[in-house]
Amino acid sequence: MRTIIISFFILGFLSCGESEKKPEESMQEIAQRIHQKVVTIDTHADINVKNFTDSINYTQNLDTQVNLPKMEEGGLDVAWFIVYTGQDTLSDEGYEKAYDNAMSKFEAIHKLCEEFAPERIALALNSEDVRNISATGKKVAMIGVENAYPIGEDLSRIEEFHELGARYMSLSHNGHSQFCDSNTGEKDGLWSFNGLSKLGEDAVKEMNRLGIMIDISHPSKAAMEQMIAISKAPIIASHSSARALCDHSRNLDDEQLLLLKENGGVVQTVAFTSYLHTAKSDAKAAYMRTVYKEVADSLGIDWYDRSEFNNLNDAQKEAYITNYPKVRAIANDVVVDRQDVPEGVNVQDLVDHIDYMVELIGIDHVGISSDFDGGGGIDGWSDASETFNVTLELVKRGYSEEEITKLWGANLMRVLDEVQKVAREWPNS
What is the pLDDT of residues 148-191, one digit of tens each? Predict the structure, then answer.
């Protein structure tokens, strides 16, 4: 009798254990768990100072691709807000105008963190700040400088920008600067320095001394190679993809990627359609140009193609930058139910580039960026509210939690740590 009772007890226990066994997680659930756990870092989000005022700012769900409500909805933890200045003449007048523009953007970012929403977002200056701020539940702002043109020829301004929070900077944008050649020189084969100028060499050393990451996304290949030869610290490409998959001068070829790996740096794969899939991007862009014009006309707004931007006067550029997000958002709504819209560049295309670069240079040297509000945005990650979709696609491709953590920002923070370590150990620092 005792044997029978024990047998029933064992069977009951096993049955109870089986019934309480947790069901296997779905792909969606795994991705959600990972996405909530990792610190997600986007290294490139442009800003317009008109969206950083007392009445209009990022506490509101504006028609910008990045703002606090969209970051909170999509689980984007860290946004590098960009102090961007377009290229102009290499003259004192041009430098001063650019400097004023840069300072207005620094001021805007500080106002967001210190006046408009200090309870929701804070400025980070290092990886420890990122971890500590994220642990409180706040979002994190960091600052990158796109184009060192506003520095002029006064290298002391690099330290000024560092004091204001800049933690990476590129030495050129679209057009050759006083510091180095731009990738745009490929188009006509005309170069100013065949890489870096003497001022550019000094700027690299100064960024090393201060602990500012050197961004090679816009400079020419020769300039990038020379920066790596001079720099005592790893470098980054803040928003570039793989040239082997999309032959654009803004992307890095295999030789550059391998050089970046040897240097210990990281390439932040960018969600910019024409840098991910040229054919898809061109077909969709041609279709959408007509829709954008229709929307702009209906709103009574002067409209220009993006290719015309550099030929516009300052007032036209400002109007275009202000109106573009609104027109784009309305146009995207207009085409939702249309059947003739060409397939767009999507999250799968973005992760194709991640896959390629991880295979070539390793998981420790690849990250993620959007270029939101600067032309970036793809189907599935059209703004910060859709950030989870990138994590979901990574899970579908078989990336582990540890690997996704690296891609979403741990690699970048490792580089920042190493750059700042070089600065701390700099002679006479």
Answer: 999 999 999 999 999 999 999 999 999 999 999 999 999 999 99
pLDDT in tens, 185-229: 999 999 999 999 999 999 999 999 999 999 999 999 999 999 999
Strand ranges (DSSP E) for 18-77?
Answer: 41-46
pLDDT digits (tens, 9 = 90+) for 231-245: 999 999 999 999 999
Q: Which residues contact 306 (CB under 8 A, 6 or more apart)?
A: 375
In three-state secondary structure terms, 55 is coil
Helix (H, G, I), strand (E, B) or coil at 243: coil
Element (H, E) at 80: strand 78-84
Q: Using CA atoms in the order 398, 399, 400, 406, what is the torsion angle rounded to 10 degrees?
A: 180
Residue 296: HSE in the Cβ half-sphere, 13 Å Cα cutoff = 18
**Could you tell me the pTM of the whole model?**
0.90
Number of residues assigned to the chain: 429
Amino acid at 182: S
pLDDT tops 90 at residue 130:
yes
| Distance, C-alpha 63 to centroid of its chain | 18
- Rounded to a whole number of angstroms, the distance between the first and last alpha carbons of the chain is 84
Task: Please give the CATH superfamily to which domain 26-273+345-424 belongs.
Answer: Metal-dependent hydrolases (3.20.20.140)
Q: Which residues contact 366 (CB under 8 A, 6 or more apart)?
A: 266, 267, 269, 354, 357, 358, 406, 407, 411
- Give me the residue spans of the domains in the chain: 26-273+345-424, 278-344
Q: What is the pLDDT of residues 358-392, one digit of tens each?
A: 999 999 999 999 999 999 999 999 999 999 999 99
